[in-house]
Amino acid sequence: MVAYRHLGSSGLKVTEITYGNWLTHGSQIEADAATACVRTALDLGITSFDTADVYANTAAEEVLGAALKGERRESLEIFTKVYWPVGPKGPNDVGLSRKHVMEGINGSLRRLGTDYVDLYQAHRYDYATPLEETMQAFADVVRAGKALYIGVSEWTAEQIDAGQQLASQMGFRLVSNQPQYSALYRVIEERVVPTSTALGLGQIVWSPMAEGVLTGKYLPGQAPPPGSRATDDKGGKQMIEAWMRQEVLTAVQRLRPVAEQAGLTMAQLALAWVLQHDFVSAAIVGASRPEQLVENVKASGVVLDEDVMAAVDAALGDVVERDPARTRSPEQRPA
C-alpha cells in the first residue's frame, strides 16, 4: 500500500504517490477508462487526487468527481487549482482576482460533487491582481469551509515568502507548492526548496517522470512508440518536446543498468528518486491504463542508497536542467 506523508508542516497526511488527471481525464482517454484508473488508484491505497479547473476546460474535474462518487469523503484528499482560463475564457475567467477565485471554487465544488476540497491551489502567480486581494479571497474560501488548506503552484521563492506573510496576517497559512520536479528537472532546489522548507510548505511535484521520458521508452534515433505521449496532438506532444533531444534520450538510457541493479523499472526509479527528498510531500502520477498505476506504486517506500543516487547524477550529467530562473509565471494573464 502507498505510504502517507505530512503535507508540509501541516497536520494533513497525503499519499506520497498522488493520482493526477492533468493530461488524461476528459482529454486523452475516455471516461470509462479514466474511472477504471481512479478505481485502481483507490484499490492500491491512493487516497489523494489532484486536478484543476483548467484541465480539459473543466471536464477533468467532472470525470474525477463522477469516479469518486460514493466513496467516503473523509477518507479522500482532493486537490484542485485556479488561475488559468476556463469556460468561455472571458476577461474575468482567468487569474487570481477575488471574482475569479470565488467563482472558481464554487464551480470546482459543483463539478467535483463535494462540499469542500482539501487543498485549493493558486495555479500560477497573478501579476495583474494585488497579492493582498488574492490572499484575502483565499482566506475567505477557508473561512467559508470550501477549502481546508491553501497552496500554490510554480511560485518563486520571493512570491512564496510574500504570500506566506500575508496569509499569516489573515489567519491561515500556505502549506504546499506544486512545482515540476524530476531527476532531469531540478530548478527548485536552489531557491524554492529552502524558502518553502523554512516557511512550512511541502512540495507536491508534477512530472516526476519528465513526461514519461524517464521511463526509458523513448529511444535515441528512433520514432516514439505509437500511442505514446510524444505522438499525442491534444497537448501531450507539446509538453514533452523539450525532453526529446537526442542527448537527453541517450543520457536517460544510461539509467537502465542503474534501475536493473536496484531491482526497479526505470519508471519506479524515477519516482523513488523524487521520493528520497524529504521536502517532497507527494509525487503526482497520471495514467491512461490501470496497469501503469500498479507498477508505479511499487516505488512507494523504496529506499535508494547513496550509491544509486550518485549513479543517477552521473548518468544524467549535464542534461539536467537546474536554472532557478525557470520557475516563473506568465507576466501577463493568458488570453
TrEMBL record:
Family named by the database record: Belongs to the shaker potassium channel beta subunit family.
InterPro entries documented for this protein: AKR, K_chnl_volt-dep_bsu_KCNAB-rel, NAD(P)_OxRdtase_dom_sf, NADP_OxRdtase_dom
Residues annotated as domain NADP-dependent oxidoreductase: 16-315
GO CC list: cytosol
Pfam families cross-referenced by the UniProt entry: Aldo_ket_red
GO molecular function: oxidoreductase activity
Origin species: Actinomyces howellii
Coiled coil ranges: none
UniProt-listed SUPFAM superfamilies: NAD(P)-linked oxidoreductase
Tree of life domain: Bacteria
Protein's recorded name: L-glyceraldehyde 3-phosphate reductase
Keyword list, A-Z: NADP, Oxidoreductase
